[in-house]
Amino acid sequence: METHTAEWLSLLARWVHIIAAIMWIGNSMLYNWMDRNLRPGKDHNETKFGELWMLHGGGFYRLEKFRAQSSTLPPLLYWFKWQSYTTWISGFALLILVYFQSRGAFLLNPANDLSYGEGVATALAFLATGWLVYDILWRIPSKGSGIKIVLSLLLLVFAVKFATDTFSGRGAYLMVGAMLATLMSGNVFFHIMVSQRKMMADIESGQDQDMALYTRAKTRSIHNNYITFPVIFTMMSNHFANLYGHPLNWAILLILMCMSALIRHFMNIRFTWKPWFAACVATFLVSGLLLFLVFQFGAKPAHASSAAASATDGPAVTFDEARPIIQNRCLPCHSETPSTDNPMYAALATTTGGVHFDTPEQIKAYAERIKIRAIDQDTMPLGNMTGMTTEERTTLARWLAAGASIH
Ligand code: HEC
What we know:
Blueprint: H1 3-36, E1 48-56, E2 59-66, H2 82-99, H3 116-139, H4 146-166, H5 169-204, H6 211-236, H7 241-244, H8 249-268, H9 276-297, H10 302-309, H11 319-329, H12 343-349, H13 360-365, H14 367-376, H15 390-401
Antiparallel strand pairs: 1-2
Helix pairs in contact: 1-2, 1-6, 2-5, 3-4, 3-5, 4-5, 4-8, 5-6, 6-8, 8-9, 10-15, 11-15, 14-15
The protein binds heme C.
Heme C (HEC) binds next to helix 12 and helix 14.
Protein backbone atom coordinates (compact mmCIF):
# COMPACT_ATOMS: atom_id res chain seq x y z
CA MET A 1 0.00 0.00 0.00
CA GLU A 2 1.18 3.52 -0.67
CA THR A 3 2.90 4.71 2.52
CA HIS A 4 0.90 7.89 3.03
CA THR A 5 -2.42 6.15 2.45
CA ALA A 6 -1.45 3.55 5.03
CA GLU A 7 -0.51 6.28 7.50
CA TRP A 8 -3.84 8.09 7.14
CA LEU A 9 -5.81 4.88 7.37
CA SER A 10 -3.85 3.89 10.42
CA LEU A 11 -4.59 7.23 12.08
CA LEU A 12 -8.30 6.87 11.34
CA ALA A 13 -8.47 3.26 12.56
CA ARG A 14 -6.52 4.06 15.72
CA TRP A 15 -8.69 7.02 16.57
CA VAL A 16 -11.93 5.11 16.08
CA HIS A 17 -10.48 2.12 17.93
CA ILE A 18 -9.61 4.11 21.03
CA ILE A 19 -12.93 5.99 21.11
CA ALA A 20 -14.98 2.80 20.68
CA ALA A 21 -12.88 0.95 23.26
CA ILE A 22 -13.28 3.73 25.81
CA MET A 23 -17.06 3.67 25.30
CA TRP A 24 -17.27 -0.10 25.52
CA ILE A 25 -14.95 -0.62 28.47
CA GLY A 26 -16.40 2.44 30.18
CA ASN A 27 -19.81 0.79 29.95
CA SER A 28 -18.44 -2.50 31.22
CA MET A 29 -17.01 -0.71 34.26
CA LEU A 30 -20.15 1.33 34.86
CA TYR A 31 -22.56 -1.61 34.62
CA ASN A 32 -20.38 -3.71 36.87
CA TRP A 33 -20.24 -0.88 39.35
CA MET A 34 -24.02 -0.41 39.22
CA ASP A 35 -24.62 -4.12 39.75
CA ARG A 36 -22.51 -4.14 42.85
CA ASN A 37 -24.14 -1.06 44.34
CA LEU A 38 -27.79 -2.05 43.98
CA ARG A 39 -29.73 -1.90 47.24
CA PRO A 40 -33.22 -3.22 47.98
CA GLY A 41 -35.65 -0.31 47.56
CA LYS A 42 -38.88 0.43 49.46
CA ASP A 43 -41.10 -1.70 47.24
CA HIS A 44 -38.60 -4.56 46.92
CA ASN A 45 -39.97 -7.89 45.75
CA GLU A 46 -38.66 -11.11 44.19
CA THR A 47 -38.70 -9.73 40.62
CA LYS A 48 -36.22 -6.98 41.57
CA PHE A 49 -32.46 -7.10 41.90
CA GLY A 50 -32.37 -3.69 43.58
CA GLU A 51 -32.16 0.01 42.92
CA LEU A 52 -29.67 2.81 43.00
CA TRP A 53 -29.57 6.60 42.95
CA MET A 54 -26.87 8.57 41.16
CA LEU A 55 -25.96 12.21 40.65
CA HIS A 56 -24.23 13.20 37.43
CA GLY A 57 -23.90 16.48 35.57
CA GLY A 58 -26.29 18.21 37.95
CA GLY A 59 -29.14 15.73 37.52
CA PHE A 60 -30.39 12.81 39.60
CA TYR A 61 -30.76 9.35 38.09
CA ARG A 62 -32.81 6.63 39.66
CA LEU A 63 -31.98 3.20 38.39
CA GLU A 64 -33.83 -0.04 38.99
CA LYS A 65 -32.74 -3.51 37.93
CA PHE A 66 -35.45 -6.11 37.61
CA ARG A 67 -36.49 -9.29 35.88
CA ALA A 68 -38.58 -8.49 32.90
CA GLN A 69 -42.10 -9.87 32.71
CA SER A 70 -44.19 -10.10 29.62
CA SER A 71 -45.99 -6.92 30.57
CA THR A 72 -42.95 -4.76 31.38
CA LEU A 73 -41.33 -4.20 27.98
CA PRO A 74 -41.08 -0.47 27.28
CA PRO A 75 -41.66 1.00 23.80
CA LEU A 76 -38.04 2.11 23.56
CA LEU A 77 -35.25 -0.07 24.90
CA TYR A 78 -31.50 0.60 24.59
CA TRP A 79 -28.90 -2.08 24.46
CA PHE A 80 -25.29 -1.87 23.47
CA LYS A 81 -23.41 -3.82 20.89
CA TRP A 82 -21.83 -1.50 18.34
CA GLN A 83 -19.21 -0.23 20.79
CA SER A 84 -17.89 -3.77 20.97
CA TYR A 85 -18.15 -4.52 17.26
CA THR A 86 -16.57 -1.19 16.28
CA THR A 87 -13.68 -1.84 18.65
CA TRP A 88 -13.06 -5.25 17.15
CA ILE A 89 -13.42 -4.17 13.51
CA SER A 90 -11.14 -1.15 13.89
CA GLY A 91 -8.69 -3.29 15.88
CA PHE A 92 -8.62 -5.88 13.13
CA ALA A 93 -8.02 -3.11 10.57
CA LEU A 94 -5.07 -1.93 12.68
CA LEU A 95 -3.72 -5.46 12.89
CA ILE A 96 -3.64 -5.50 9.11
CA LEU A 97 -2.29 -1.95 8.75
CA VAL A 98 0.47 -2.26 11.32
CA TYR A 99 1.34 -5.92 11.78
CA PHE A 100 0.48 -7.46 8.43
CA GLN A 101 2.07 -4.57 6.48
CA SER A 102 5.79 -4.21 5.75
CA ARG A 103 5.89 -7.97 5.21
CA GLY A 104 5.31 -8.55 8.89
CA ALA A 105 8.34 -6.56 10.16
CA PHE A 106 6.61 -5.94 13.51
CA LEU A 107 4.97 -9.35 13.70
CA LEU A 108 7.65 -11.86 12.79
CA ASN A 109 10.70 -12.97 14.69
CA PRO A 110 13.70 -13.06 12.31
CA ALA A 111 15.18 -15.95 14.32
CA ASN A 112 12.20 -18.16 13.35
CA ASP A 113 11.91 -19.63 9.88
CA LEU A 114 8.37 -18.42 9.36
CA SER A 115 7.59 -16.96 5.95
CA TYR A 116 5.40 -13.88 5.71
CA GLY A 117 2.40 -15.90 4.53
CA GLU A 118 2.86 -18.48 7.26
CA GLY A 119 3.20 -15.75 9.87
CA VAL A 120 -0.07 -14.08 8.87
CA ALA A 121 -1.87 -17.44 8.67
CA THR A 122 -0.56 -18.40 12.13
CA ALA A 123 -1.70 -15.07 13.56
CA LEU A 124 -5.22 -15.51 12.16
CA ALA A 125 -5.37 -19.14 13.31
CA PHE A 126 -4.22 -18.02 16.76
CA LEU A 127 -7.21 -15.66 17.05
CA ALA A 128 -9.70 -18.26 15.83
CA THR A 129 -8.32 -21.14 17.92
CA GLY A 130 -8.22 -18.96 21.03
CA TRP A 131 -11.91 -18.22 20.66
CA LEU A 132 -12.94 -21.80 19.84
CA VAL A 133 -11.06 -23.40 22.73
CA TYR A 134 -12.30 -20.84 25.24
CA ASP A 135 -15.86 -20.97 23.99
CA ILE A 136 -16.11 -24.76 23.95
CA LEU A 137 -14.61 -24.97 27.45
CA TRP A 138 -17.19 -22.55 28.86
CA ARG A 139 -20.10 -24.16 27.00
CA ILE A 140 -19.55 -27.47 28.79
CA PRO A 141 -22.20 -27.67 31.51
CA SER A 142 -20.73 -27.92 35.01
CA LYS A 143 -21.74 -27.32 38.62
CA GLY A 144 -19.12 -24.81 39.66
CA SER A 145 -16.70 -22.82 37.54
CA GLY A 146 -13.50 -23.49 39.56
CA ILE A 147 -12.04 -26.06 37.20
CA LYS A 148 -12.91 -23.98 34.16
CA ILE A 149 -11.13 -20.98 35.64
CA VAL A 150 -7.99 -23.03 36.33
CA LEU A 151 -8.10 -24.53 32.82
CA SER A 152 -8.60 -21.09 31.26
CA LEU A 153 -5.53 -19.79 33.09
CA LEU A 154 -3.46 -22.79 31.95
CA LEU A 155 -4.61 -22.20 28.39
CA LEU A 156 -3.59 -18.56 28.71
CA VAL A 157 -0.08 -19.61 29.81
CA PHE A 158 0.08 -21.92 26.80
CA ALA A 159 -1.14 -19.18 24.43
CA VAL A 160 1.39 -16.67 25.76
CA LYS A 161 4.24 -19.15 25.44
CA PHE A 162 3.16 -20.11 21.94
CA ALA A 163 2.92 -16.46 20.86
CA THR A 164 6.31 -15.46 22.28
CA ASP A 165 7.94 -18.53 20.70
CA THR A 166 6.34 -17.83 17.33
CA PHE A 167 6.19 -14.07 16.83
CA SER A 168 8.51 -11.16 17.61
CA GLY A 169 8.20 -9.95 21.21
CA ARG A 170 6.19 -6.95 20.15
CA GLY A 171 4.03 -9.04 17.82
CA ALA A 172 3.47 -11.67 20.52
CA TYR A 173 2.22 -9.18 23.12
CA LEU A 174 -0.13 -7.64 20.58
CA MET A 175 -1.40 -11.02 19.36
CA VAL A 176 -2.20 -12.18 22.90
CA GLY A 177 -4.09 -8.91 23.39
CA ALA A 178 -5.90 -9.28 20.07
CA MET A 179 -6.87 -12.85 20.97
CA LEU A 180 -8.27 -11.82 24.36
CA ALA A 181 -10.09 -8.88 22.76
CA THR A 182 -11.57 -11.33 20.25
CA LEU A 183 -12.91 -13.39 23.16
CA MET A 184 -14.54 -10.23 24.49
CA SER A 185 -16.25 -9.32 21.23
CA GLY A 186 -17.08 -12.98 20.64
CA ASN A 187 -18.80 -13.04 24.02
CA VAL A 188 -20.91 -10.06 23.02
CA PHE A 189 -21.75 -11.42 19.57
CA PHE A 190 -22.30 -15.11 20.29
CA HIS A 191 -23.61 -15.05 23.85
CA ILE A 192 -24.72 -11.75 25.28
CA MET A 193 -26.62 -10.62 22.17
CA VAL A 194 -27.98 -14.08 21.42
CA SER A 195 -29.28 -14.49 24.98
CA GLN A 196 -30.79 -11.04 25.01
CA ARG A 197 -32.53 -11.54 21.67
CA LYS A 198 -33.96 -14.83 22.89
CA MET A 199 -35.06 -13.18 26.12
CA MET A 200 -36.87 -10.45 24.20
CA ALA A 201 -38.59 -12.98 21.97
CA ASP A 202 -39.76 -14.95 25.03
CA ILE A 203 -41.14 -11.87 26.71
CA GLU A 204 -42.85 -10.65 23.56
CA SER A 205 -44.53 -14.02 23.19
CA GLY A 206 -45.92 -13.71 26.68
CA GLN A 207 -43.41 -15.70 28.74
CA ASP A 208 -41.47 -14.37 31.72
CA GLN A 209 -37.69 -13.89 31.61
CA ASP A 210 -35.72 -17.14 31.51
CA MET A 211 -33.05 -16.85 34.19
CA ALA A 212 -30.74 -19.34 32.44
CA LEU A 213 -30.38 -16.83 29.59
CA TYR A 214 -29.65 -14.12 32.12
CA THR A 215 -26.89 -16.22 33.73
CA ARG A 216 -25.34 -17.03 30.36
CA ALA A 217 -25.14 -13.37 29.34
CA LYS A 218 -23.97 -12.25 32.76
CA THR A 219 -21.17 -14.85 33.03
CA ARG A 220 -19.67 -13.79 29.70
CA SER A 221 -20.09 -10.15 30.60
CA ILE A 222 -18.12 -10.71 33.82
CA HIS A 223 -15.38 -12.54 31.90
CA ASN A 224 -15.11 -9.48 29.69
CA ASN A 225 -14.82 -7.26 32.72
CA TYR A 226 -11.84 -9.24 34.02
CA ILE A 227 -10.14 -9.29 30.64
CA THR A 228 -10.24 -5.49 30.22
CA PHE A 229 -7.19 -4.54 32.30
CA PRO A 230 -4.85 -7.18 30.79
CA VAL A 231 -5.96 -6.26 27.27
CA ILE A 232 -5.38 -2.56 27.82
CA PHE A 233 -1.82 -3.37 28.86
CA THR A 234 -1.12 -5.43 25.74
CA MET A 235 -2.52 -2.65 23.56
CA MET A 236 0.00 -0.13 24.91
CA SER A 237 2.85 -2.62 25.28
CA ASN A 238 4.43 -1.60 21.97
CA HIS A 239 5.88 1.41 23.84
CA PHE A 240 7.79 -0.87 26.19
CA ALA A 241 10.57 -2.57 24.28
CA ASN A 242 12.30 -3.42 27.58
CA LEU A 243 9.35 -5.73 28.37
CA TYR A 244 8.48 -7.33 25.04
CA GLY A 245 12.15 -7.45 23.99
CA HIS A 246 13.23 -9.37 27.09
CA PRO A 247 14.10 -13.08 26.69
CA LEU A 248 11.60 -13.85 29.47
CA ASN A 249 8.93 -11.66 27.87
CA TRP A 250 6.32 -14.43 28.32
CA ALA A 251 6.81 -14.48 32.10
CA ILE A 252 6.66 -10.68 32.27
CA LEU A 253 3.42 -10.64 30.28
CA LEU A 254 1.84 -13.31 32.48
CA ILE A 255 2.81 -11.48 35.68
CA LEU A 256 1.36 -8.19 34.41
CA MET A 257 -1.83 -9.82 33.15
CA CYS A 258 -2.46 -11.76 36.36
CA MET A 259 -1.70 -8.70 38.45
CA SER A 260 -4.09 -6.47 36.55
CA ALA A 261 -6.91 -9.06 36.49
CA LEU A 262 -6.55 -9.57 40.25
CA ILE A 263 -6.63 -5.84 40.85
CA ARG A 264 -9.77 -5.69 38.70
CA HIS A 265 -11.23 -8.40 40.93
CA PHE A 266 -10.48 -6.55 44.16
CA MET A 267 -11.91 -3.38 42.66
CA ASN A 268 -15.08 -5.30 41.75
CA ILE A 269 -15.61 -6.62 45.26
CA ARG A 270 -14.56 -3.45 47.03
CA PHE A 271 -18.07 -2.57 48.18
CA THR A 272 -18.53 -5.74 50.15
CA TRP A 273 -14.95 -6.63 51.04
CA LYS A 274 -13.15 -4.21 53.33
CA PRO A 275 -9.48 -5.18 52.82
CA TRP A 276 -9.71 -4.68 49.05
CA PHE A 277 -7.25 -1.82 48.95
CA ALA A 278 -4.65 -3.66 51.00
CA ALA A 279 -5.13 -6.64 48.67
CA CYS A 280 -4.50 -4.40 45.63
CA VAL A 281 -1.33 -3.03 47.19
CA ALA A 282 -0.16 -6.55 48.13
CA THR A 283 -0.81 -7.80 44.58
CA PHE A 284 1.10 -4.85 43.21
CA LEU A 285 4.05 -5.47 45.53
CA VAL A 286 4.23 -9.21 44.92
CA SER A 287 4.10 -8.64 41.14
CA GLY A 288 6.79 -5.98 41.48
CA LEU A 289 8.97 -8.45 43.37
CA LEU A 290 8.44 -11.14 40.73
CA LEU A 291 9.33 -8.67 37.97
CA PHE A 292 12.41 -7.61 39.89
CA LEU A 293 13.51 -11.25 40.11
CA VAL A 294 12.94 -11.76 36.39
CA PHE A 295 14.97 -8.69 35.47
CA GLN A 296 17.70 -9.27 38.04
CA PHE A 297 18.27 -12.99 37.69
CA GLY A 298 16.54 -13.95 34.44
CA ALA A 299 18.35 -14.54 31.16
CA LYS A 300 19.67 -11.53 29.25
CA PRO A 301 19.45 -11.23 25.43
CA ALA A 302 22.22 -13.31 23.88
CA HIS A 303 23.73 -10.42 21.93
CA ALA A 304 23.32 -8.01 24.78
CA SER A 305 25.22 -10.07 27.33
CA SER A 306 28.21 -10.62 25.08
CA ALA A 307 28.19 -7.08 23.71
CA ALA A 308 27.85 -5.52 27.14
CA ALA A 309 30.42 -7.83 28.73
CA SER A 310 33.07 -6.99 26.18
CA ALA A 311 32.16 -3.30 26.01
CA THR A 312 34.68 -2.21 28.60
CA ASP A 313 37.58 -4.53 27.87
CA GLY A 314 39.40 -4.25 24.56
CA PRO A 315 40.54 -1.18 22.65
CA ALA A 316 38.51 2.04 22.74
CA VAL A 317 36.42 2.62 19.64
CA THR A 318 36.38 5.94 17.80
CA PHE A 319 33.39 7.55 16.11
CA ASP A 320 35.01 6.85 12.71
CA GLU A 321 34.71 3.14 13.46
CA ALA A 322 31.24 3.27 15.02
CA ARG A 323 29.54 5.50 12.46
CA PRO A 324 29.72 3.11 9.47
CA ILE A 325 27.94 0.48 11.56
CA ILE A 326 25.08 2.88 12.26
CA GLN A 327 25.07 3.92 8.62
CA ASN A 328 24.86 0.36 7.37
CA ARG A 329 22.56 -1.14 9.96
CA CYS A 330 20.34 1.70 11.19
CA LEU A 331 20.24 4.39 8.50
CA PRO A 332 18.22 2.33 6.01
CA CYS A 333 15.20 3.19 8.20
CA HIS A 334 16.44 5.98 10.48
CA SER A 335 17.05 8.65 7.90
CA GLU A 336 15.55 11.64 6.17
CA THR A 337 16.23 9.67 2.97
CA PRO A 338 15.67 5.99 3.76
CA SER A 339 17.36 3.31 1.72
CA THR A 340 15.65 2.09 -1.43
CA ASP A 341 17.33 -1.35 -1.27
CA ASN A 342 14.19 -2.75 0.23
CA PRO A 343 10.79 -1.04 -0.20
CA MET A 344 9.95 -1.85 3.42
CA TYR A 345 12.64 0.53 4.73
CA ALA A 346 10.84 3.58 3.40
CA ALA A 347 7.54 2.40 4.86
CA LEU A 348 9.10 1.70 8.24
CA ALA A 349 11.03 4.98 8.16
CA THR A 350 7.72 6.83 8.49
CA THR A 351 7.02 5.05 11.78
CA THR A 352 10.30 5.65 13.61
CA GLY A 353 8.85 8.80 15.13
CA GLY A 354 11.40 11.01 13.36
CA VAL A 355 14.36 9.32 15.05
CA HIS A 356 17.08 9.94 12.44
CA PHE A 357 20.80 9.22 12.59
CA ASP A 358 21.92 11.22 9.55
CA THR A 359 24.26 13.65 11.32
CA PRO A 360 26.82 13.06 14.11
CA GLU A 361 24.78 15.39 16.34
CA GLN A 362 21.64 13.31 15.86
CA ILE A 363 23.54 10.14 16.68
CA LYS A 364 24.97 11.77 19.79
CA ALA A 365 21.54 13.00 20.87
CA TYR A 366 20.11 9.46 20.72
CA ALA A 367 23.20 7.69 22.13
CA GLU A 368 21.43 6.52 25.28
CA ARG A 369 18.45 5.12 23.34
CA ILE A 370 20.79 3.50 20.80
CA LYS A 371 22.50 1.70 23.69
CA ILE A 372 19.16 0.55 25.11
CA ARG A 373 17.64 -0.65 21.85
CA ALA A 374 20.68 -2.10 20.05
CA ILE A 375 22.89 -3.25 22.94
CA ASP A 376 20.87 -3.86 26.11
CA GLN A 377 17.64 -5.16 24.60
CA ASP A 378 18.48 -6.26 21.12
CA THR A 379 15.19 -4.91 19.75
CA MET A 380 16.93 -2.83 17.02
CA PRO A 381 17.59 -3.06 14.08
CA LEU A 382 13.94 -3.98 13.79
CA GLY A 383 13.72 -7.71 13.10
CA ASN A 384 17.49 -7.43 12.47
CA MET A 385 16.46 -6.76 8.89
CA THR A 386 19.81 -5.12 8.14
CA GLY A 387 21.71 -8.14 9.50
CA MET A 388 23.73 -6.55 12.30
CA THR A 389 26.38 -8.93 13.64
CA THR A 390 27.41 -9.58 17.24
CA GLU A 391 30.87 -8.12 16.52
CA GLU A 392 29.25 -4.93 15.31
CA ARG A 393 27.15 -4.74 18.46
CA THR A 394 30.28 -5.15 20.55
CA THR A 395 32.09 -2.41 18.63
CA LEU A 396 29.11 -0.09 19.02
CA ALA A 397 28.86 -0.98 22.71
CA ARG A 398 32.54 -0.06 23.23
CA TRP A 399 32.10 3.29 21.53
CA LEU A 400 29.06 4.00 23.72
CA ALA A 401 30.85 2.79 26.88
CA ALA A 402 33.77 5.13 26.10
CA GLY A 403 31.41 8.13 26.22
CA ALA A 404 29.97 8.16 22.66
CA SER A 405 32.25 10.97 21.54
CA ILE A 406 31.64 12.25 17.99
CA HIS A 407 35.02 14.01 17.65
C1 HEC B 1 14.08 -2.03 9.37
C2 HEC B 1 13.91 -0.69 9.89
C3 HEC B 1 14.74 -0.30 11.09
C4 HEC B 1 16.09 -0.45 11.26
C5 HEC B 1 17.10 -1.05 10.29
C6 HEC B 1 16.41 0.13 12.54
N1 HEC B 1 15.28 0.60 13.13
FE1 HEC B 1 15.15 1.58 14.92
N2 HEC B 1 13.14 1.84 14.64
C7 HEC B 1 12.40 1.31 13.61
C8 HEC B 1 11.01 1.54 13.87
C9 HEC B 1 9.86 1.11 12.97
C10 HEC B 1 10.90 2.23 15.11
C11 HEC B 1 9.64 2.66 15.87
C12 HEC B 1 9.02 1.48 16.60
C13 HEC B 1 9.77 1.06 17.82
O1 HEC B 1 10.20 1.90 18.64
O2 HEC B 1 9.94 -0.16 18.00
C14 HEC B 1 12.28 2.42 15.54
C15 HEC B 1 12.60 3.08 16.69
C16 HEC B 1 13.91 3.27 17.13
C17 HEC B 1 14.27 4.14 18.22
C18 HEC B 1 13.33 5.10 18.95
C19 HEC B 1 12.48 4.44 19.98
C20 HEC B 1 13.20 4.32 21.30
O3 HEC B 1 13.06 3.26 21.92
O4 HEC B 1 13.87 5.26 21.71
C21 HEC B 1 15.63 4.00 18.40
C22 HEC B 1 16.50 4.73 19.41
C23 HEC B 1 16.10 3.08 17.41
N3 HEC B 1 15.03 2.65 16.65
C24 HEC B 1 17.41 2.66 17.25
C25 HEC B 1 17.88 1.91 16.19
C26 HEC B 1 19.27 1.56 16.01
C27 HEC B 1 20.40 1.94 16.96
C28 HEC B 1 19.36 0.85 14.84
C29 HEC B 1 20.59 0.24 14.24
C30 HEC B 1 21.41 -0.57 15.08
C31 HEC B 1 18.01 0.77 14.30
N4 HEC B 1 17.15 1.42 15.14
C32 HEC B 1 17.69 0.15 13.09
C33 HEC B 1 12.89 0.68 12.49
C34 HEC B 1 14.22 0.37 12.28
